[in-house]
Amino acid sequence: MAGKYSRDMNEPKPGSSDGKTVEFRIAKLNQVWDKAQRMQLSPGRQAELHSDLKIQEKDELQWKKLKVEGLDENGEKEAQLRRNFNVILAKYGMDGKRDTRTMESNSLKDHDIKEGDQFDDPRLDKLWNKAQSSGKFSSDELQSLKREFQHHKDKIHEYNLLMDTLSRTEEIHKNVISPLEGDTKEHVLHQKHTDLKLKMRDLNQGFERLRKISHEGFTEDSEFREPRVIELWEAAKRSNLTQDELDSLKEELHHFETKVEKHNHYQEQLELSHQKLRHVESLGDEEHIKRNQEKYNTLAEKTREIGYKMKKHMQDLTNKISQQGLQHNEL
What we know:
By secondary structure, the chain is an all-alpha fold. Helix content is 73%, strand content 0%. Pfam families: Alpha-2-MRAP_C (PF06401), Alpha-2-MRAP_N (PF06400).
């Protein structure tokens, strides 16, 4: 374990013995990526995982610099990174546990879900059915609302994953012998409980927003369309930002929304490209297969790149909105 963060363990080799390109600069992230390749996740999920791992890589490399400078003495940021990594493993079914908390991998599958039971949550399903039958929404507005419901469902899933990792940490905590180690783990557990409380508050506020829209419809002054952007804007309005800061942030959120929409578009195109490639492969024309494989590979790379930039921008915006983010730049 002592060499876990050493240069030899974490700096990538130019290439593996089988000639495969090394994707990440941290060994454990390459192991996760290799496992994902073997699992044959859908193209959309693979691109999403790649973006999540790139964010994790950025955060861990930044943390290593802080650690060298002695700026993480209580291990709080290291614990947060470990938690984030465990959530990634659980999110993509690589934590060795069977995940009974279903989550749709992409919006294209929305049309295949049985009407009336779309969100794996009785409260959400009831609210969605009421909104659908209310006559208050145009077809475009219903699609926007559906994206918000799907986003809320994903947030519930993320909360459940955090709950699960917390339960496992508490089990380990019970077996601690060293008093000093016990104090450290107590601090980590306290931080996890704090994170869970904040996420539960966000979930409650998000559900209240969905309840209000479902009953009253969208207001004419709705600023944004994308759920992640709406969530950030709502959080900003609850924060201690000045009016000038809010105005500046609103403009930045409009730019961010364009990134989110571009990412959504590329995710959809990637899925369609994958379907076309599978069809071409079934026909057996080698030249045709090669051309479509090249197009698919290029699109997959572009989707990962856009996904990473979008998630990094979202991380920066979240830090800017939070009180901590106003005081100093978080990991």
